[in-house]
């Protein structure tokens, strides 16, 4: 029997062992206003230990309040376990919401955890989350699928041969497995490139190096599925006083603002929407994603820059003209539960005689 919105138990999962941990906390604190029903806030600290915390906790409270109620995830149970006075109390979960940014969450880890626990998830699955988290793999997959991307190559900290001969300066260097503009640099010389790579390799073993556009506009568009159909948001354009959009621009309000998409055209907006919808479908995403684009003012070409499977604040700002906060949350939850039911309809068993000693395997 289908539960009403008010009867559902919704678990927000956020934090985690990631450079983007703090941004995840902010996203979760904002997202708590999107969901009706019984809400559980599951905070994963920087050591990847999970705790049940108060729904009224502010971002600041996560720095100072005591973490005392441990959470464990119960595989195959559709539930979490809360440890109280050395006793395990099982709490069934109707749906979880992935609010984790970066590694150990956005990269498919939370999707895998929920899949093992038999819990529907608002968010992308293991494969699509892993592809979108890895900037090098994202570029390779997008290029294979025919989506336009800026010229670039991936290199590792063990082999960077050939990089200088393949690309033209200026270049942009990005750690392969990070978001929120952390560790990103624009370089104009081989010396700067070496330093930027050293900085990027502090975060992970691989980096994406791309040719940097000198005169461009960044465009954002979100996509989600509603009643089985992919829908897209408004298109916006963040701007910055810096050479590229920085962590401070995004989260500390250091000179960034939003402006209307330049008048080059309604056709540009239409291209962004078309590509966003196509990416969501072709790569099999779930939940809400935000796709970031670059429009080259010199050449008039549009490029896919990045895909965010857990966008900041779950990208609600791009949907404000269409949904209230709770309407938005309900649409995400309904689709997650419908997707889970579809997944449960598949066959997960295959009868064989292998364990009975067939195929030359001896019984013991």
Report on this structure.
The protein is of the alpha+beta class. It folds into 3 domains: 5-122, Rossmann fold; 151-211, ATP-grasp fold, A domain (Dna Ligase, domain 1, 2-Layer Sandwich), CATH 3.30.1490.20; 215-309, ATP-grasp fold, B domain (D-amino Acid Aminotransferase, Chain A, domain 1, 2-Layer Sandwich). Helix content is 27%, strand content 27%. The chain contains 10 helices and 18 strands. Strands 3-2-1-7-8 form a 5-stranded mixed sheet, sandwiched between helices. The longest helix has 20 residues, at 325-344. The radius of gyration is 22 Å and the shape is globular. The model has no long low-confidence stretch (mean pLDDT 90).
Please specify the SSE layout and strand pairing.
Blueprint: E1 9-15, H1 21-31, E2 38-44, E3 50-53, H2 61-64, E4 70-74, E5 79-84, E6 87-92, E7 95-98, H3 109-117, E8 121-122, H4 126-133, H5 135-144, E9 152-156, H6 163-166, E10 171-175, E11 185-187, H7 190-200, E12 206-211, E13 216-226, E14 229-232, E15 237-239, H8 247-251, E16 257-259, H9 266-282, E17 289-296, E18 301-308, H10 325-344
Parallel strand pairs: 1-2, 1-7, 7-8
Antiparallel strand pairs: 2-3, 4-5, 5-6, 9-12, 10-11, 10-12, 13-14, 13-17, 15-16, 17-18
């Amino acid at each position: 029997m289908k539960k009403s919105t008010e009867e559902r138990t919704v678990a927000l999962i956020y934090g985690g062992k990631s450079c983007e941990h703090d941004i995840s906390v902010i996203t979760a604190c904002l997202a708590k206003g999107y969901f009706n029903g019984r809400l559980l806030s599951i905070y994963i600290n920087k050591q990847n230990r999970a705790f049940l915390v108060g729904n009224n906790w502010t971002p600041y409270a996560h720095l100072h309040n005591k973490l005392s109620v441990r959470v464990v995830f119960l595989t195959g149970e559709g539930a979490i376990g809360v440890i109280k006075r050395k006793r395990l109390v099982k709490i069934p979960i109707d749906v979880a919401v992935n609010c984790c940014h970066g590694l150990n969450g956005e990269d498919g880890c939370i999707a895998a955890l929920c899949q093992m626990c038999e819990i529907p998830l608002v968010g992308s699955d293991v494969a699509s989350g892993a592809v979108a988290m890895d900037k090098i793999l994202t570029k390779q997959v997008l290029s294979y699928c025919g989506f336009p991307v800026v010229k670039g190559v991936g290199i590792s900290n063990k082999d960077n041969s050939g990089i200088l001969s393949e690309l033209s300066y200026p270049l942009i260097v990005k750690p392969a497995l990070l978001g929120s503009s952390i560790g990103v640099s624009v370089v104009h010389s081989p010396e700067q490139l070496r330093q930027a790579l050293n900085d990027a390799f502090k975060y992970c073993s691989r980096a994406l190096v791309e040719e940097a556009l000198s005169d461009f506009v960044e465009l954002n568009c979100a996509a989600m599925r509603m009643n089985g159909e992919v829908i897209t948001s408004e298109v916006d354009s963040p701007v910055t006083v810096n050479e590229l959009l920085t962590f401070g621009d995004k989260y500390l309000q250091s000179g960034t603002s939003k402006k209307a998409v330049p008048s080059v055209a309604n056709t540009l907006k239409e291209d962004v929407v078309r590509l966003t919808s196509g990416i969501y479908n072709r790569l099999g995403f779930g939940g809400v994603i935000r796709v970031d684009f670059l429009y080259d003012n010199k050449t008039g070409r549009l490029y896919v820059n990045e895909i965010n499977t857990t966008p900041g604040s779950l990208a609600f700002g791009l949907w404000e003209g269409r949904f209230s906060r709770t309407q938005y949350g309900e649409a995400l939850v309904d689709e997650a539960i419908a997707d889970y039911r579809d997944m449960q309809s598949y066959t997960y068993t295959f009868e064989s005689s292998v364990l009975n000693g067939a195929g030359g395997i001896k019984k013991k």
